[in-house]
């Protein structure tokens, strides 16, 4: 599924150099600037490319429509539009999108609801870089 973008226009087949790994587009959604930067910095997959960051669900949907991400990290508690609604809308727009909810698990019912709306994984705040990378790895393998 990820291969289509990478095959387009690389044009280096004649040199015999293997094609670079497909770039998986990542969108980071969290109303905390600190958390957004933390996720951006700690992701260690060279095949991932951050195509956008958003601080609320409304901005996230606008960037989603523009950049067509493959993977999204999603906060739940945010102004304007929360993560639950944002997940539902994204899945409607692109059923194949992989969404990792990153949130403080204050309320188990909310996590369950997120999964029902189409989220694919859950990472509890606070998290370590290793936990984040493992959670993303599970999502994209
Ligand atoms: Mg939040």
Structure description:
By secondary structure, this protein is of the alpha/beta class. The chain has a single domain, classed as Response regulator (Rossmann fold). The chain contains six helices and five strands, in the order H-E-H-E-H-E-H-E-H-E-H. It has helices at 3-7, 33-42, 57-67, 83-93, 108-117, 129-140; strands at residues 24-29, 48-54, 71-74, 98-103, 121-124. It has a five-stranded parallel beta sheet with strand order 2-1-3-4-5, sandwiched between helices. Helix 4 packs parallel to helix 5 (108-117). The model is unreliable at 1-13 (pLDDT under 50). Magnesium ion is lined by residues 30-32, 75, 77-78.
Give the secondary structure arrangement, pairings included.
Blueprint: H1 3-7, E1 24-29, H2 33-42, E2 48-54, H3 57-67, E3 71-74, H4 83-93, E4 98-103, H5 108-117, E5 121-124, H6 129-140
Parallel strand pairs: 1-2, 1-3, 3-4, 4-5
Helix pairs in contact: 3-4, 4-5
Keywords:
single chain; 141 residues; alpha/beta; Rossmann fold; five-stranded parallel beta sheet; 5 strands; 19% strand; binds magnesium ion
Question: How far is it from the N-terminal to the C-terminal residue, by CA?
Answer: 11 Å
Give the helix tally: 6
CATH topology: Rossmann fold
Q: Could you say which overall geometry the principal axes of the C-alpha atoms support? A: globular
Provide the residue-averaged pLDDT: 88
Number of domains: 1
Poorly predicted tracts of residues: 1-13
Q: Give, in spatial order, the strands making up the sheet with the most strands.
A: 2-1-3-4-5
Tell me the series of helices and strands, N- to C-terminal: HEHEHEHEHEH
The CATH homologous superfamily name equals Response regulator
**What share of the residues lie within helices?**
40-55%
């Amino acid at each position: 599924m990820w291969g289509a973008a990478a095959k387009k226009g690389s044009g280096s087949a004649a040199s015999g150099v293997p094609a670079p790994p497909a770039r998986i587009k990542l969108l980071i959604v969290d109303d905390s600037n600190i958390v957004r930067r933390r996720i951006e910095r700690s992701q260690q997959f060279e095949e991932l490319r951050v195509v956008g960051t958003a601080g609320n669900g409304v901005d996230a949907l606008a960037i989603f429509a523009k950049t067509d991400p493959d993977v999204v990290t999603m906060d739940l508690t945010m102004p304007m539009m929360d993560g639950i609604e944002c997940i539902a809308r994204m899945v409607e727009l692109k059923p194949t999108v992989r969404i990792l909810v990153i949130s403080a698990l204050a309320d188990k019912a909310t996590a369950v609801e997120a999964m029902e709306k189409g989220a694919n994984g859950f990472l509890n705040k606070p998290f370590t870089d290793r936990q984040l990378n493992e959670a993303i790895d599970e999502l994209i393998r």
